[in-house]
Amino acid sequence: MDSERVILSSKQKALRINLNENLYGTFAEIGAGQEVVRHFFRAGSASGTIAKAISAYDKDFSDALYGTEKDGRYVCQSRLKKMLLHEYNLVEDRIKRDKHPSKHFFAFANTVATINYSKTSQGHGWFGVKFQTSPEASPSEVFLHARLHESDALQQQMTTGKLGVNILYGCFFLNEDPKELLKSLYDNIEQGHLEIDTIQMNGPAFKGVDNRILSLQLVKLGMTDAVIFTPDGVNRQAADVLYKKNILAIRGSFRPVTKVNIDMIAKGLKKFREEPKVDPDNIQVLFEITLNNLKGEGDIDEQDFLDRADILCSIGQTVLISNYQKYFKLVEFFSRHTKKRMGVIMGALTLTEIFNERYYRDLNGGILEAFGILFSRDLKILLYPWRDIESGELWTTSSTPIHPRLKALYDYLSFNKKIVDIEDYDEDVLSIFSTEAFKRIKSGNGEWENMVPDFVDRIIKEKCLFGYCGMKPNDKEDVEDPALAAARAIEQPTKD
Fold it and tell me: Strand, coil or helix: what is 40?
């Protein structure tokens, strides 16, 4: 993936680690066997590096070592963290510093399930390293989740071994350049064989690293098509967030979040809750930003991305960054994790684009193939109206202009309530556009404040987002927490 860096083989990487007299630690692997540590044994000189290698295949042995999980799972992040903590503590307890004053301790762990014999389950696993960069340093951590896409268990085991070597090598020799470390994870692995959808780098070795940027890099570099982060800004595995949920998504640039965005999500959520197959207490709302939206004016501006993420996370929302330009791909992604009713909030202008055949020329079945994927799922499109600037006409399900060739398909979907109107919209916000608000923020035109909710206004000013350079609000001013204000606005929308 990088033409400048010399890519070593897995054996060369393992040997370089083994020959470094300062590195010393343990390997603990569950599920796919001792695929990682095998590379170090085969490379030679392993006795100076490996204090212990363990593979707890039996579940009772594993539970005795690392404790039990509430949900009974073994291939999960909480299990990985318990393994790393347990094994690293053992190294510190049993290897005396007075005998090994120059050692950098580490613990490597993974918990992996490869594809089953009948090929009905996908291989995946959690990998992690807890390590020191000097004998005096507090430990740092790297952990990630990977999906194994090869169709053979043996091939997945081989990929597991290579990935583990790459992680450990990156931690020791590339920790000063986290983005380079990220790229190195695919050394000697074909990109189509492996998907990395979650990553975290924590501790003193990664001081100043923003894991949201690393998550963005996963999508930007094609390592995965989608990442999710929760309001605390932490990249979470999609299955943990979406499993068996009624998912409600809204796509936009959110640059910045405007009054119309809040009205769309508030009224859309209200409509979605009224659906007979929706459990109001089991809804996961997602604010989705596509890679295309992030590129906007060329390459991705990381600060601009962080500005958008800061607002959405500050108002308590879960953010999805995806490479799904087409909606049917997004719904396909959701369907991996839930069979329950899903909803997409969409403006009427966007709906006309979905019914544009030119976007589906790369599919053998054209638009019918895409719509077969889109609407064979239990999906509702919640349509937010759009007012045509030139004619003044309001576009709803009954008036949105659809090409005559596709009008029969559209009428069928509307008649069967696959596309439904959001009726109690706020007429006063229909003329607000994020692009115009953004221009006014950049130019210093204070009228942008009337285009965003009060809680978003405060966040932009306090954090100087999107190039805002005006006076910050009075720190002593008694104002409501933005997340609470946003939650109130979404749950109980009121007119401004």
Answer: helix
Amino acid at site 149: H
3-class DSSP assignment, residue 276: coil
Residue with tokens 């206004």: 457
Q: Which two tokens stand for residue 257?
A: 């979040």
Q: What residue type is 22 in one-letter code?
A: N
Q: Give the residue among 32, 39, 78 at the shortest CA–CA distance from 55.
A: 32
* Per CATH, domain 10-209 is 3.30.465.10: no
d(CA 146, CA 389): 47
Among 1.10.10.10, 3.40.50.620, 3.30.70.100, 3.30.420.380, name the CATH number for the domain at 225-496.
3.40.50.620
Report the C-alpha gap between 217 and 183 in whole angstroms.
Answer: 9
Q: Mind listing the pLDDT tens digit for each residue in 123-150?
A: 999 999 999 999 999 999 999 999 999 9
Do residues 99 and 141 touch, judged by C-beta distance below 8 A? no
Tens-digit pLDDT profile for residues 253-278? 999 999 999 999 999 999 999 999 99
Main-chain phi, psi angles of 56, to 5 degrees: -90, 85
Instruction: Give exposure, 73-91, as e/b (b: 16+ Cβ within 10 Å).
Output: ebbbbebbbbbbbbbbebb
Dihedral angle sign, alpha carbons of residues 233, 235, 236, 241: positive
- Domain boundaries defined on the chain: 10-209, 225-496
How far apart, in Å, are the Cα atoms of 180 and each of 4, 61, 176, 187? Answer: 11, 37, 9, 11
**Residue that has been written with the tokens 């976007």 in this structure:** 359
**Closest C-alpha among 207, 32, 20, 56 to residue 116:** 32
Q: pLDDT (tens digit, 9 = 90+) per residue, 234-255? A: 999 999 999 999 999 999 999 9
* Burial letters 14-34, b for 16+ CB under 10 A, else e: bbebbeeeebbbbbbbbbbbb
Phi, psi of 464 (to 5 degrees): 50, 55
Q: The tokens of 483 are what? A: 């997340």
DSSP per-residue letters across 60-101:
HHHHHHH---TT--SSSHHHHHHHHHHHHHHHHHHS-TTT-T
pLDDT in tens, 385-433: 999 888 999 999 999 999 999 999 999 999 999 999 999 999 999 999 9
Strands 235-236 and 226-229: antiparallel
